Sequence to fold (390 residues):
Amino acid sequence: MPERVKKVGVLTGGGDVPGLNPALKTLVNRASDLGHQVLGIRRGWGGLLNLNRDDPSTMESLVTPLDRQVVRTVDRTGGTFLHTSRTNPGKVGSSEVPPFLQQEGFDPLAKGPHDFTSHVLANLEHLELDALIAIGGDDTLSYAERLHREGFPVVAIPKTMDNDVFGTDYCIGFSTAVTRSINFIHSLRTSAGSHERIAIVELFGRNSGETSLVSAYLAGVDRALISEVPFDVEKLSRLLAEDKRGNKSNYAMVTVSEGATMIGGQIVEYGQEDAYGHKKLGGIGVVVSEAIRKLTGSHIIYQQLSYLMRSGAPDSLDLMVAFNYANMAMDLVNEGMSGRMVALQGGTYCHIPIGSVMQGVKRVDVAELYDSEEYRPRVRHVLGKPMFLY
Fold:
């Protein structure tokens, strides 16, 4: 038993991935074993931004005590039962400021952004939390690092289907995203072959092309476009036409990272920027499809997998990592350690300074793993490389 009962908060931020609910269940059960209490913060950092200490109804809607009975069955579904958001309390646009935080003189037309970190810290104190466990990608964890610098005890768990959090070889959600992508790619072969078409499969992947690369590698796709290497669409069209002619079923396939760009082109984005400065990606596959159709004369099948990659239940690897990351995080809290992120490095579980998230950008090792001339994976020598070839 701990020297005293600790009250621990937990939240999930950013995009949902398979494995979040199993991680939450494990956290709560481990805390119960250690004699601690857990409060779930709903809607990620948005929950702490919108919590009004003078309005009890916001406490009821945004904070929920978690125990074994509450989480008993949550691991049977994907996503996060605590819900999520892409809110950054340190950079809140004027239109996103909660009404109760709009003090006298507040100009709703002012561009902002506004920093409400002091409000978040006051809410954490109001909730009497001894520590906070944040589960998210690099955006969510960058704000966790901000709270750590402000002196609040924080422990981080990395999750993202892109597997691009710097400092760890693996993030919760990646294996299931790749597994699901491979299954959909193989299913799509039947239509591509039946209609003798070129199939373009667009996958999530903003800064890192790892999902496109690994999915193409494991599914045996003809070509793969990744975020790290701009491509020549005329050359790609010639290659795919050759692939199609060389296939006795007369079809070809290419995977495309949503962050991929043509040489001299721009990333295809739409909508307003979120609190972390990101617009939504998606649509490069449409651009590629139309160009290839014109250049080859072939009919095209365009499939954007997007949310299908991260919907539903996790596979066994994501379950394993979710369980283990959660147990490690709660052990760190129990031991009074903070400012740490649980991680996998070289196949071994460890924990590292949370500031590591801010120290680099995780990208595909193009020289080792990708043929930039042929637009396809080039995985030959894996001795000494991590399991997922990062």
